[in-house]
Write a structure and sequence with these properties.
Mean pLDDT: 93
Structural class: alpha+beta
Radius of gyration: 17 Å
Number of strands: 5
Shape: flat
Strand order of the largest sheet: 4-3-5
Helix content: 40-55%
Largest sheet: 3 strands, mixed
Strand content: 5-15%
């Protein structure tokens, strides 16, 4: 745990990530924070996103085919990414710790966790396609 200050800017950034709940990019968080604090700089938002992720308040997600995103849910879970519109959503299913053990047995790696993203079309994009 770090001894960083809990500034108003940090609280605005954390609130924005929690409120958006859509795995926002840093720029989307910046746009949301600017609604309540028009004078905040992009650098301040980005710096606070980094600090909040380092402190474990939010989680940086590197989802293949997508820019870096921030997640208000910090525990291990799975994601869906629409290949058409880019929307990222959580998968409502339990994290499979047994998968970590299976990979460890087969590869002799010391596995900490895994990230899994399912790629396809969201319901809205699927409707447009048909």
């Amino acid at each position: 745990m770090t001894n960083s200050r809990n500034t108003i800017q940090r609280q605005l950034v954390l609130s924005a990530v929690r409120q958006l709940q859509n795995h926002p990019t840093a720029d989307e968080v910046y746009q949301e924070v600017q609604k309540n604090c028009p004078t905040i700089s992009r650098a301040t938002v980005y710096r606070n996103l980094k600090l909040l992720a380092e402190e474990g308040e939010i989680r940086l997600r590197n989802i293949s085919g997508s820019p870096e995103r921030y997640d208000h849910i910090c525990n291990n879970h799975y994601h869906l990414r629409c290949e058409q519109c880019g929307k990222v959503m959580d998968v409502e299913m339990p994290y499979m710790v047994s998968l970590d053990e299976e990979v460890r047995k087969r590869n002799e790696y010391l596995i900490k966790s895994h990230d899994l993203t399912f790629v396809g079309l969201c319901p809205e994009c699927a409707k447009k396609k048909h």
